[in-house]
Specification:
The complex is a heterodimer of chains A (197) and B (189). With 197 residues, chain A is α+β, with helices and mostly antiparallel strands. In chain A, 44% of the residues lie in helices and 21% in strands. Classes of the chains: A alpha+beta (197), B alpha+beta (189). At the A-B interface, helix 3 and helix 5 of A face helix 3 and helix 5 of B.
């Protein structure tokens, strides 16, 4: 149990058996069936999620009832509503499982506790937060300023394993385009002989 | 001038007067003229700015060669090309004054030294980063889930100063719509 997360964490900070034992009090591993909703709008997000196996997504629904995907999280990704966790505010989005998944639930106070137990953890957490901000800012700027083709290529680079796991309409939803436009972009890229990677 | 920054910091975290004094002593004042550019694309951003008077804009040039505005900051807000500040790589973004402005700024080495020596500064920085993340997420969501009219209404509700103080060109650019669409929205609402 928790081995996947342990080896993930070990890559970033040194953790002894005893320290990990203490940390694991704030973690719960759960099996989740495809379609399970982990967070809904209006709720305060009480956990962050780490995907051991499977696939989660966060999304919003607009006033016309249309879904828009904010983020995907496959193996070794974190997902939560950071704003809701940190500022204790009601969430604006859903988090659900796109595949049967095994997910670690992190308590709200995990970061504080881990920083107390492991000295390097605070710096690690800051690096993660930096990464999340860079990622979100890039996504915002690319939505504001770049073509669908460029955005699709960024998507493939960010999530190389997802193009085959996720239905095309979800990828279109993430990119903010119609499935028809996505199919056109894919054809054009195939024509140009684009190889992801 | 430092009082505004002091109360901004105290509002977010618990801090002793001694720590606050050490933080404030690292911020220096800077006056910028309307239209003046504080950071150019290609430069490495070495400073974090706090606006005490006026307005700063963060924008970049998109694929079509047009300006795209990511962020606008009036009085009592930070405005930083954060990606370049964190990575210390050349910035893709510009920072520009839209009005004659007064800014307090802290440079990277002082910033780093504070992180190591003042515990509450680290807390404040974390708070700042979480806020920056939230701001970007909300803005992203507004573009993918709202049409032009909904975005305009939200702007009037949350940040009316943008519409009251800035030119139509900037407002339209911030909403990612044409100036024609903006005037149509203005006449309708």
């Amino acid at each position: 149990m928790l081995d996947v997360f342990r080896s993930y964490l070990q890559k970033h900070v040194h953790v002894s058996d005893e320290q990990f034992q203490q940390l694991s009090k704030h973690l719960k591993l759960r099996k989740i069936a495809k379609g399970t909703v982990l967070l809904s709008p209006g709720e305060i997000c009480e956990h962050s999620f780490f995907v051991e196996k499977g696939l989660l997504r966060s999304y919003t629904v607009d006033s016309a009832g249309k879904e828009h995907i904010i983020q995907f999280a496959s193996e070794n990704w974190f997902l939560s509503d950071r704003s809701s966790v940190y500022f204790n505010e009601p969430s604006d989005f859903f988090i659900d499982a796109i595949e049967d998944s095994s997910v670690i639930f992190f308590d709200k106070d995990f970061t504080e506790c881990a920083s107390g137990i492991i000295k390097e953890f605070r710096a690690y957490n800051e690096r993660m937060l930096h990464k999340h901000i860079l990622h979100m800012q890039k996504r915002l700027n690319s939505l504001l300023g770049f073509t669908a083709e460029k955005r699709y290529m960024d998507f493939i680079r960010l999530y190389p394993d997802l193009t085959l796991r996720v239905p095309q309409w979800m990828i279109a939803s993430y990119l903010g385009i119609t499935p028809e436009s996505l199919s056109r972009v894919r054809k054009e890229l195939a024509h140009k002989n684009f190889k992801p990677g | 001038m430092h009082e505004a920054l002091a109360s901004y910091i105290k509002q977010d975290i618990d801090i002793t007067e001694e720590e606050l004094g050490r933080i404030l002593s690292c911020f220096r004042p800077l006056s910028v003229r309307k239209q003046e550019v504080l950071l150019n694309r290609g430069q490495v951003n070495r400073q974090i700015n706090f606006v005490t008077k006026g307005c700063l804009r963060i924008f970049f040039i998109d694929e079509k060669g047009e300006e795209a505005t990511r962020y606008l900051a009036f009085e009592n807000h930070f405005a930083t090309a954060l990606v370049s500040f964190i990575s210390q790589e050349p910035s893709m973004e510009y920072v520009q004054a839209l009005e004659d402005s007064e800014v307090l700024y802290i440079e990277k080495p002082d910033f780093e030294r504070l992180l190591e020596t003042v515990r509450s500064w680290e807390k404040f920085y974390r708070h700042y980063l979480e806020s920056a993340y939230t701001t970007n997420t909300n803005r992203l969501m507004s573009f993918i889930t709202m049409d032009a009219q909904e975005r305009y209404r939200l702007l009037l509700e949350k940040n009316p100063e943008v519409v009251l103080r800035l030119s139509n060109r900037i407002v339209a650019n911030y909403l990612n719509i044409s100036q024609e669409t903006l005037s149509r929205l203005k006449s309708r609402i």
